Amino acid sequence: MSAPWWETGVLYHVYLRSFQDSNGDGVGDLRGLTHRLPYLSWLGVDTVWVSPFYVSPMRDFGYDVQDHTAVDPLFGTLDDFDEMLARAHGLGLRVIVDWIPNHTASDHRWFEASRDPSSALRDFYYWRDGGEDTVPNNWPSAFGGPAWSRDGRSGAHYLHLCLPEMPDLNWHNPAVEKAQFEVARFWLDRGVDGFRVDVAHWIGKHPDLPDNPPDDGSAFINPAKPPSAFDRVAHIYDMDGPLAHAVYRRFRALLGSYDPPRMAMGEIHLGDLKRWAAYYGADDELHLPAYFGLLSVPFDAEALAAAILQQEGALPAGAWPTYVLGNHDEPRLASRIGAERVRLAAVLLLTLRGTPTLYYGDELGLESISVGEAAARDPLGMRVPGLGRDGGRAPMPWTAGVQAGFCPAAATPWLPIPPGYHARSVACQQRDFASLLHLYRKLLYLRRQHEVLQRGALADVAVRDGVLSFVRLWKAEQVRVCLNFGRQPAALPAGKVLLRTGTGSLLGSNEAAIIAVQS
Ligand code: GLC
Q1: pLDDT given at position 435
Q2: CA nearest 291: which of 282, 300, 280, 281?
Q3: Alpha-carbon distance 335 to 171, whole Å?
Q4: Which atom of ligand 1 has the smallest separation from the CA of 389?
Q5: What is the DSSP letter of 211?
Q6: Does residue 471's CB lie within 6 angstroms of at least one atom of ligand 1?
Q7: pLDDT (tens digit, 9 = 90+) per residue, 169-210?
Q8: Beta bridge partners of 474
Q9: Are 507 and 484 spatial neighbours (Cβ–Cβ below 8 Å)?
Q10: 199 lines ligand 1 (CB under 6 A)
Q11: Of 63, 270, 389, which is best to mutate to test ligand 1, by the most ligand atoms within 8 angstroms of its C-beta?
């Protein structure tokens, strides 16, 4: 039986603002992406996830949607989108886009209408009475401060788990589901292959909006980030209730009504993996609830092995895992783990059992840029010190030339071009067969050649003397992957070397090898 493309393929995450500018305004756009699609096909990824390009006031750079079915002029037009999609499909690439069910921009016509207490759309959002100084409950916003703001017009409070300019939709109102499913249908009818569902679990709020109990934040601790007030509450009533599961069962049915069926990958941050795994349902909710466990542990053999086994152990029968090492909300992978380990990361991401998501620029080993206060753009970082996300969102360096080929010389890129981009650029690394970029390309090629790397079972996850190793098994094929996180060289296991990052007779520190084992 053949496996669906979302299980065998590799996703490439394009943060559109930073990928390729085509019109000289310093912001990446859809035509720019179209122009760069051949690069993605050269690299060998299968699916492109394009971050939001809908009409938006851009307070959260497009996650605050003002018009779900129109393209923001900053990114182009609907025709540009159609052309990008057709070109991608022509190259054999699939395309998924963000579906943002939990909130809209406050400039959205739904919210504008709902500000009037007598409006038929009042119930599209969560409006509650409260005093001038008292809020309806103790929920904090993930973007700092309380999750409630008072609207001057009626004096009532509305709920927002993100910015005050991003009110939360009330999914207990069936009209909200109908409206958001229509949005999904609009993009499915245009031919997208699926969605990345933004903070998917947040739609499941308790209808009475009770106070959340406090928590020590231990479930959310991520060494790369200081815990925020949002991490110090137990998220019991503000998200992840039964409503979310009911909605995703219907959403899955919607996706399944298309021929061929479309896919949904969910952004679900829940420390409790039982709650996280529930989003697979009985294979009738999200196809791929994304697993972020490798982002929040130290990048060493023991911690990674534990996080891998933790996901495997939490999966319902038959469910397919996922892996993420970087995204637009995190510091850059190379900065988090250290430049000397980026090759280990590449091999790990592309050989584990599960669908990998590769964040643009991680294949070049880009590091986080430091953005001074004056140049800072991310609203989260401005409101919660230490949580700024600009560092991981710098423009993609395509060439060693002016502005790294991202935008014309005269343009000002929206975030600084990464310093030292010359040697890191795509053009330079393409010329160097020993580059990190070529390692990613070889790994992607190897995955296509060896079904075992795409579909094989995972076995023998072990750590010995700092070497993390595991086996993939598929029919008669068996490969062993060894990653040396230790300081000492280790022995190479017997078998035919399919790929390795070093050359000596031993597996050196920070080197990895993929070996075909005779069974
Ligand atoms: C998700 C997105 C993030 C955005 C937030 C609000 O976490 O990945 O970038 O700010 O949702 O939509």
Answers
A1: 98
A2: 280
A3: 39
A4: 9
A5: P
A6: no
A7: 999 999 999 999 999 999 999 999 999 999 999 999 999 999
A8: 477
A9: yes
A10: yes
A11: 63
